[in-house]
Structure formats: C-alpha cells, structure tokens
Specification:
Elements (H helix, E strand, L loop, with lengths): L2 H24 L6 H23 L6 E5 L1 H4 L9 E7 L4 H17 L4 E6 L1 H10 L1 H7 L3 E5 L1 H17 L1 H19 L17 H12 L10 H19 L8 H10 L5 H42 L11 E4 L2 E4 L2 E4 L11 H12 L5 H10 L9 H11 L4 H11 L2 H5 L20 H12 L9 H10 L10 H15 L4 H12 L3 H8 L5 H11 L2 H18 L6 H18 L14 H13 L3 E7 L16 E9 L4 H11 L2 E11 L9 E10 L7 H13 L4 H11 L12 E5 L7 E8 L4 H11 L3 E10 L2 E9 L8 H16 L1
Parallel strand pairs: 2-3
Antiparallel strand pairs: 1-2, 1-4, 5-6, 6-7, 8-9, 9-11, 10-11, 10-14, 12-13, 13-15, 14-15
Amino acid sequence: MTGTDVQKEAEDSGPSGYAAARLRLLTEEARSGPPRRAALADLTDDWLTGLFAAGAEGLRGVSLVAVGGYGRGELSPRSDLDLLLLHDGGDTKAVAALADRLWYPVWDLGLDLDHSVRTPAEARKTAGEDLKVQLGLLDARHLAGDLGLTAALRTSVLADWRNQAPKRLPELQELCAERAERQGELQYLLEPDLKEARGGLRDATALRAVAASWLADAPREGLADARRRLLDVRDALHLATGRATDRLALQEQDQVAAELGLLDADTLLRQVYEAARVVSYASDVTWREVGRVLRSRAVRPRLRAMLGGGGKPATERSPLAEGVVEQDGEVVLARAARPERDPVLPLRAAAAAAQAGLPLSLHAVRRLAATVRPVPTPWPAEAREQLVTLLGSGRPTIEVWEALEAEGLITRLLPDWERVRCRPQRNAVHLWTVDRHLIETAVQASEFTRRVSRPDLLLVAALLHDIGKGWPGDHSVAGEIIAKDVAARIGFDRHDVTVIATLVRHHLLLIDTATRRDLEDPATVRSVAEAVGSQGTLELLHALTEADALATGPAAWSSWRGSLVADLVKRVAAVLAGDDPDDPEEAAPTAEQERLALEAAATGSPVLALRAQTEPPAGQEPSGDPEPLGVELLIAVPDQPGVLPAVAGVLAMHRLTVRTAELRSLHLPDGVDGSVLLLDWRVAAEYGSLPQAARLRSDLVRALDGSLDIAGRLAERDAAYPRRRGVVAPAARVSVHPAASRLATVIEVRSQDAPGLLFRIGRALEDASVRVRSAHVSTLGANAVDAFYVTGQEGAPLPGDEAAAVARKLEETLRG
C-alpha cells in the first residue's frame, strides 16, 4: 500500500481508519527514518484537518497549528501531538466546541496530546512568560483554517524572538546548562536520555532557536546527520518498547540495535555517542559565539562614545606561539600562518590554547583540517614536545582536544585513536567512554608531573594506557604492541619506547597486586619487581596507577587503595635497590595485639578493639583534614574452627564492609597455654555509625558457640528487601593462581558484590577443611574481586588437584 493509499484510508474511515493506517505505516519494514516520520506527520495532518473541517464548518477566524516537534514534521511512533487552536477572540463557545471535537478523538486513540486554545495576543503573552512555549511556537506550522491568522502569529513570534534575543538567549543557555547538570552528557552515559541529556535532541532544538534569532548560527557540518541519527534511535526505541520513552535502557539496547540493523548494542551506543558529540561541540561553539556577540553589543556604545563617533577600532591580536594568536577570547591562526607548509601547526596551536586556557576557534580548526600537511614520521622533536605540552596542560586540554577531534585531526595525528573513539565501557565504575577516559587520565597525570623524573613518558603513557581496548583479547597485551608503534612514530628513542610499552602493559599491575595479593609474601613483591624492571619505571607506574584510577571514577580510588599501592611500591623499590625479600622474619606483634592475645587466651573467648585509621599513605604528606581509611578491627580468639565465617557473618549482620582481612597465629609467651588467632581487618560502615565493640563481641561469641544462626539472619534480611528488576549479573568465577605465592595457595573469587558474600566464601572454605592465611578484599562498583591465601591443616600450600577441587566447590556454592 502506498503512502497515498494509507492517507486515503485514514480520511475515509475516521479515527479507526487513522489508527489502522498509522499501525500499517509503523510496521512497514521498507520505510524508516526521516521518510517514516514525514509520512506519519502527513497522515496525522490529513486526519486532524478532516476533524477540523467537520467541526469548524461556518466558523471564521480560527486555525489549527502544529508546534514543537510535530510542527517540524517529525513524529516518532509514540510522540505526543503538540497542537494550538488559534482564534481571533470572536465566538468563544464555538471555539470551545471545536476544541472538544479535536481533542477527544486524539485521547480516544490513546495518543498523548499537548494542547492549548489561545488568541494571537494570548499566545505571544504566554511565549514572553514561558521560554518553552516560545521555543515551540518558533516551529509553528499551519494545518487547517485561517492561514492568515497562523502566518501573522508566526511573523510576530519570530519578530519577538529576534528583538528579545539578547535577553532570552542567556536564559535559554542557562536552561540547557541546568538540564545538562541534571541529566548528564549523552556521549558518556550507559543509559542515556536521548532527548534531555546534554548533546541530545533538546540541545539540537536549542541550536535551531539560536539560528532563528539571527544573532549566531551553529556549525552545520554533520549537525543534521547527528540529529537524524538520534531521531532514528528514538523511533526504534519507541517501536521496541511500545512506550513514549527517551531513555535508552540497557535491557532494550540489543532490541533497538536489531531494529536499526546494527551489529550489537555497543555499535548502537557508539553511534549515539558520535551524534551526541557533534551536537555538544556545536553547542559549545554556538554559545561561545552568542556570548562574544552579546559582549560586543554591550561594549560598542561605550566605545563609540569614547571615540566621539569615529571609526571602528582594530581588533586586538596577542601572539601566543609561532603562527598562533589570541583574538576575542579565542585562539586563531596568525595572518602570516601557512598551515600547508607547517605540519606541526595544529599541535602548536592546540598546546598554546590549552596553556592559555582558551578555546580554539572553529575557523582555525577547520582551516587546519582543510590545509595542513601530515606530520613526518617519525615526528620531529617540536611535534612531540607540543603534544606533551598539550597533554600536560590540565583541565583545558579536554576542550582543545575535543575541538581537534570534531574536525578529524586527532585520528590523522594518531590513527590508532579511531578504534577507541566513542567506545562505550560497560562497567559501572567507569564514568567515561574509552577515549575520554584516556584524556581524563592525562589530565590527572598532569598533576603528578613533579613527582616523576620523566613527565613526558608519564603523559604519553596516560594517553595510551587503554588504547588496546579497541582490539580483541587482553587490552593490556594489545595496548603494549600499539604503544610501541605509536611511541616510535612520534619520535621517542628505543629506551623510551620500551618504558612506555611497559607502562601500558602493566598499568593495572600495582592496583591489582596491592588489593588482591599478600604483600608480606616475597613472591608477590618479586614478581612486581621483575615486571617493572627499574626504579624509574616504578616511579612512573605509581603515578600512572593513581591517575588512571582517579580518571575512572570515585569507586576506583581512595586513601585506602592509595596506602596499599604506596606500601607495595615501597617494598618493590627495596627489592630493585638490592634487598632480598626471601624468608622475611615474621613481624612481631604490637603491644596492643599481644595484650588482646593474652586476654583471649586467659578468658577462652574472643576480645576485640576498634580503631579509626586516618594516616596518609606512605610517602604522602598529611593533610589538614585527613580522610578516614576505614576502621581497624583487631580480634584475638582462641584457635578453633569456623573463625573466618563467624567474623565475616557478624560483620555482615552489622552492615560493615570488609576492605582487607588478615589472619595469623600468634606465638604466646612461655607459660601461656593454647594458641590464639589474630585477625587484623579494615572495615567501614555501609551507612550510619559503627556498632559498639561490645555488641560485636557478644554476637561473635554466640556465632562461635553456634547459638547465633548467621545464615538464617542474613537470609531473613535479604528476603525483607523487594526484588527489583535489573541487569542479570555474570556468574561467579573462582580460579587458582599457583605461582602467586610459595607459602600458600592463592584462590581468587570474582563475583557480584552482595551482603554476606565473605561469610558464604568463608563457610565454604571452612567446609573444605582449608585454613585461610590472609584475605584481600577489593570491591569495584558492584563487582567483588577477593583473593584468599589458603593452606592445608599443616600450614603447607594445597596440592594442585586439591586446590582445583576447592575452587570448583567454592564456585558451585556461589553460583547456587
């Protein structure tokens, strides 16, 4: 059936005919995107025109007007209809009756309707008071009735908008900024709002409004395509969900991707991010131009008075670098600049802009993109130095980098960048796409350039550390290969190339080892020293580790993590300096630990102490207001089975999160009978204040004697919470790392974090008749990665087959 046939069916059969024709149109596989939106608008136009004609017979001075998205002729499958019934103020009773004849059929079909009935004067008055109404009227389109009435309103509304632009545009900009603060940036969100988030459809509409003011205009290249892509995704989302939603939820992304004929949800998100990036950049450039024009208008009368009505003053241009000047608060090319003869000019201009904290002008970037020659390979020293200067400029680097990215200059300088550009990261810990995370890491690393002897290597490694995420397999392994090639291409010598490649290959080594391995074990420290190789590389890796974590998100770094990494670095540095970590003497217990152990031996029951930890990580100066690292929980208990699950269960009951856990036997002084286990744990309250030590001890006594049913209490609490629909977490995975220690068997658990998880693990290990020497707990967002150093009852590492059996049993328990 053709589009004309569909429209005729709607006209001939009234509301039911329109509904059938609408359904037929939306299910036509051959028609999608702009043609379907336009056809749906035409179909709706014809239906509403018919309703109007039937209800307005003999009535003059009335017109039906489409506004907003419907006014633009863009109807998504579940879009609401924005309609204005315009009248000259004559027969108001007849107008009210006509409104009923129009609105009720729309409601009867279950369509959302945004409607109003106003005279032209009322419409203008409301627009003057409500910016959203005025924006909708800018897209007013005549549907039926008195064309002159509609045309007069359009003319007056546009005139009002242009006359009031100096006042209304700052108001519109503030509205956009508030919405961005509320909704976030579309180009980085895993579940974005296609309409409201920054870079979404609302911002695209705002750019149209700015253009209509004649005050400034948005960069048009790519903007129409970006807007079309976002509308196509919204169409597919409406069809997939059957709802008028703009939120691209995780559980619907695969279906939306299939609706659009895309490979998978990641491909979908990448296209959404690319479109949002175009809209966001156009918004930045446009609002900057609006500000410049408004400032110029405000200054011009005063200048004219000062000059006595004389000629126009020359625009001041301040030199910044060779071929680069500042003008009107932007960085532009000097008149004598010759991009076609100066391949380093883009990097020089970018570095100068970032150092000055100024934006690169759109005209300058486009001229560079159109005329500049490729940088020779390997890069000359100046090009490499300008890149390092750009990366080391701190927060201004981001805006300058995005300007280069918008015109394709980054991928021309660094072709490998294409694979990580706009690439989503499906991990709640990460705030950014891969490419933005790399720039954020460089920004964080710029704060640490005074801590290292080679800041240039630190900054380039920060830029490249996740470059392997665009390739299959382990991104650190792939990244090492790419980093070698990139570092050589940009002109580093062989030694520096090796250092950068090592930093990229091992950028997760320190944080993973510090949070998941026993730092008292010589094998742990030696393995890190062997991987790093030198003091200089260790220094750089320490700074890169912190910069990477800070750029990831709040869950990836804390004073506690910093203290663990600093402790590991100190130990590795000692090994690299020649110290031998083998056969270390067991650290003597502190006076407090010995006191608790003696009391536990004397009373035959557990004793404990809680102490806040606020000391800074090793090598860092204490701040005026130290950040708590958590609370140290010291427990001494007569040696007996079930200690680990009992303690973990009691802590879970009291909603305490375990950060680290260490267990060891203490040798008591001569004359004291029995053996005592000492547990030194770091804990933090999930929320609220810490429980009293007396309550913890009381519950621990009951847990150890079997009178407290921890499993039952945790199950009751879990059952009391309503089950919420969410993403299904991957199954738990348990693995054995036989080479990680000579003193124990390392069993690593990766699982969805949950209350009582450590209790379940401890009980499973207890049931397997193994002893836990130490536990290293790490939580990243919703994911727990815990390592347990276990031995047999005699204190030796487990045989390979026995360790594998314990791991299998533990995995079955967690998956069950």
